[in-house]
């Protein structure tokens, strides 16, 4: 069945996503409104509501778009180096002012199932897929066990990062990330 209406203008879409992301950083989730996004992007609220059902959806799309740009998938030729780069970039992002929005979204998601589902769909699942891709490359190159449970490997590698950020509140620095990745990696070989 063909989609109804005109397709999204990529320039307008980028303007809206950028505006929503900038406002999120400046004001925080609660103080962002569709009106403010429309004003900053130079579009009407109707345009935003035509493409997104609510404020949360457009704000999260703006955030996820920015996160994707900040978290490229490395390909150095060795799985350990790829994992170190990927996990370090993720850790740096998570501890940045932008990344602290992750904790806020997870918190909001405990009260709003649509927010947590969008967070999982647009942020967590793509990050897991990237990490599984890295592990699968290691399996294909013989750097990791051939029968490795990729999903479990991702949980073991990345779970401690989220645990420190969301539960213990302990610092998350490059040295600690390297310790986690190397320790778990040695168990996956």
UniProtKB/TrEMBL annotation:
Domain of life per record: Bacteria
Presence of keyword DNA damage? no
DNA-binding region listed in the record: 33-52
Q: Which GO terms describe its molecular function?
A: DNA-binding transcription factor activity; transcription cis-regulatory region binding
* Keywords from the UniProt entry: DNA-binding, Transcription, Transcription regulation
Which segments constitute the HTH tetR-type domain?
10-70
Q: Does the keyword Lipid biosynthesis apply?
A: no
Instruction: Fetch the Pfam families from UniProt.
Output: TetR_C_11 (PF16859), TetR_N (PF00440)
InterPro entries reported for this sequence: Homeodomain-like_sf, HTH-type_TetR-like_transc_reg, HTH_TetR, Tet_transcr_reg_TetR-rel_C_sf, TetR_C
The protein, known as: TetR/AcrR family transcriptional regulator
The species is Cohnella luojiensis
């Amino acid at each position: 069945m063909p989609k109804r209406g005109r397709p999204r203008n990529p320039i307008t879409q980028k303007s809206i996503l950028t505006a929503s992301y900038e406002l999120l950083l400046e004001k925080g989730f609660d103080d962002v409104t569709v009106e403010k996004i429309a004003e900053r992007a130079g579009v009407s609220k109707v345009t935003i509501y035509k493409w997104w059902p609510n404020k949360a959806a457009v704000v999260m799309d703006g955030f996820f778009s920015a996160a994707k740009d900040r978290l490229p998938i490395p390909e150095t030729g060795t799985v350990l180096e790829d994992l170190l780069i990927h996990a370090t970039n993720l850790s740096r992002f998570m501890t940045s002012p932008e990344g602290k929005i992750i904790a806020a979204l997870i918190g909001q998601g405990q009260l709003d199932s649509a927010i947590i589902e969008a967070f999982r769909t647009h942020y967590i699942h793509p990050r897991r897929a990237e990490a599984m891709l890295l592990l699968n490359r290691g399996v294909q190159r013989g750097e990791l066990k051939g029968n490795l449970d990729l999903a479990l490997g991702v949980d073991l590698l990345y779970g401690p990062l989220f645990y420190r950020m969301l539960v213990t509140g302990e610092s998350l620095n490059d040295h600690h990330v390297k310790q986690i990745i190397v320790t778990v990696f040695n168990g996956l070989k």
